[in-house]
Amino acid sequence: MSLLKHRLAKTVKINRISAIWIIPIVTLCIGIWMLYSHFSQQGKSVTLLAHDASSIVAGKTVIKSRSVDIGIVESVTLSDDYKKVVIHGRINKEMEPLIKNDSIFWIVKPQIGRAGVTGLDTLLSGVYIELVTGKDEAGFNGKPFTLYDTPPLTAPNEAGIRINLESSQSRVVPRGASVLFRGYQVGNVESSNFDIKLRKMKYQLFIAKPFDSLVTQNVRFWKEGGVNLSLSSQGANLDIPSLDVILSGGVSFDVPDGSKFGEQAKQFATYELYPNKKSIQDSQYTDYHEFLLFFNDSISGLDKGAPVEYRGIRIGTVSEVPFYTKQIFDTNPISNHNIPVLIRIEPGRLSNVIDKPVDLASIIIREQNNGLRAALKSANFITGSLYVDLNFYPKYQNEETNIQNQEYGYDTIKTVPTGLSQLQAKIIQTLDNLNNLPLDKTVNEFNQSLEKSQQLLDSLNRLINSKDIQNLPKELKTTIDSLNKTLQGLQPGSTLQNQLQADLQKFEEIMNQLSPVLETLNDKSNSLIFAAPKKDDPQPKARGH
User: Fold this and answer.
1) By the 8 A CB rule, do 360 and 345 touch?
2) CA gap 228, 237 in Å, rounded
3) Which comes out higher in pLDDT, residue 74 or 515?
C-alpha cells in the first residue's frame, strides 16, 4: 500500500509556475525592450573615407549640420589595403532625412582661405564633421562618402545649374575662381582637374539661380585674367578686369555677336573653354570652305586665327600656318620657297551685310580669271602681325587660270608678292642703280676739289699768321684810342667846347654889327664913297589896304 502511494506521488504533474521566475522574466523583457529602444533610436550608420584621421577621436568627434549636433563618430580604423582611413559615424534618428546619396561631409578646422580665417571656434571645442544635405530623392543606398578637407563652394541642394568645361590650354583656372557674365559674378568654379588620358583640363562650374537662365546652348565660355591690350586700326584697347580676377583668374560666358540665344542648357552640359573673348566670335562659323595658298614670301607674323579679308571686310580665317602634310612636304619641300597656308572662307561672316546666302567659294574660284589674288598685308606695324588680303590686281586679269585648279585635294587661290616685298624689291633696285653710277670718277673729281680747297685754306692760314696781319690790330687800337680822346675833348663841359662856344658868340655879335652895313651895300654898292641918301621912317599900313 505504501509502495502504491509512492508511485502515485511520482506521476503527479505540477500545472502552476513558481513565483520565483516572474522577476527574471520581467527583467529579460525590460532588457529586450531597452535593446530594441536603443537600436531603434540610433539612426543610420554612415561610412566616411579620408586620407588621414587628424584630430578625429572615436566617441568624441561630433557630426554637425548648421552648427547643430546630429551624430557622433563611433570608430576610426584603416581600410583593408591600409591606404585610407575608414570612419564610422552614427546619425540621430530624427536627422536621418539629411543623409542622401549626394550629401557632402567635410572636416571643420582652422583655415585661412579666400574668404578669410574660418573655423576658429574649433581651437577650444575641437574639430568636427560638417554635413550638407543633398537633393537626391532616391534615398540613401549605404555607399561610403568622401570626407573632404575643405568645405564645398556651393551646397548640393542650392538651386542653379552645373556646367562642365574642357580645355587644352596651359593656363589653369583654379578652384574657387569667379564665373562672370558681362563682368558680373554669377557663379564659381567648383572643381579643376587634369584628365591624363585626354590630356585636357576639366572644370565644373556652378551658376546660381536665377542666373542659370543665362546659360543657353549657344553661349561660349572663355578665360579671364590679366590685362588685355589689343592694337588695331581703330587704336589701342586696354581691358583691365577686377583685382580678384587678375589675382585668381576667372571664366566669362556670353552669346557671340550676331548669334541667337538658343534653348536652355541642361544640367552638366559640356562646353569648350576658349582662350579669350575674341576667339569665341570665330567659333560660331561652322560652315566654311578651305583653300590652300602658297606664299613665296616670309610668313613671319602670320598666325593661326589671323583674319582673311576682302578690301577690309573679313570673310574668313587662317586655319593652319604652315600647312604641311606628308604629301605636300614630299612634293613641295621647304627648298622650293613656297610655304603652304590653309585658310577658311566663312560665308556666315557676311550675314550682317548680305541678306541672301551666297556661294562665296565659287565666286572666289571664278573671279581669279579677273585678277583676284591673295597677298600678305601688315595688320599692325608695332606687333608685326600679318593677315591675308584678297583683292583684284589689273595686271593679272588677262592671265590664263584654271578655275578648277586643285592641289593636294584643296582648291587654291593664286598669290602675289606682298606690299612689303614690293617695297623691298624697289629698294634693292634703287641700290643697284646707285651701284651702277660712275661713282669712282665723281669721287676723284671731288677729291681734287677738296685738294684745291685745302690749298686755299693753307694760303689763308699763312696770311692770317703773317706779322703784318698780327700788328694790324695793335695799330687799329692806337687809332681808336686817339679818336676817343679827341671825342672826349668835344664833349659838353670840356675846355675846347667852351672856347668854341665863346668864339661863336663873338662871331654872332660881329655879324649883328655888320648887318646894317651889308644892307646899305646891298641897296647902294658905292655907299662907301658917296654918302647914301637918308630914308624916311617906314609908315605902317592901314588895316584893309
Assistant:
1) yes
2) 8
3) 74
Distance CA 61, CA 85 (A): 15
Cell 619641300 belongs to 333
Ranges 175-184, 280-289, 315-324, 525-534: which has the least confidence: 525-534
pLDDT band at 33 (very low <50, low <70, confident <90, very high): confident
Q: Over the stretch 175-206, which tens digit does the pLDDT of each residue have?
A: 888 898 988 889 888 888 888 888 888 999 99
322 upstream amide cis, omega within 30 of 0: yes
Rg (CA), the chain: 56
SS3 string of 358-395?
Answer: CCHHHHHHHHHHHCEEEEEEEEECCCCEEEEEEEECHH
CB 322 within 8 A of CB 306: no
Distance CA 421, CA 244 (A): 47
Contact 200, 167 (CB under 8 A): yes
CA dist list (Å): 56 to 110, 157, 430: 14, 27, 86
Helical pair 495-523 and 467-489, crossing angle rounded to 10 deg: 70
Burial class (CB in 10 A: 0-12, 13-18, 19+), 387: buried
CB of 366 within 8 A of CB of 403?
A: yes
CA distance to 423, 439, 449, 450, 461, per residue, from 453 (Å): 41, 21, 6, 5, 12
Global pTM value: 0.53
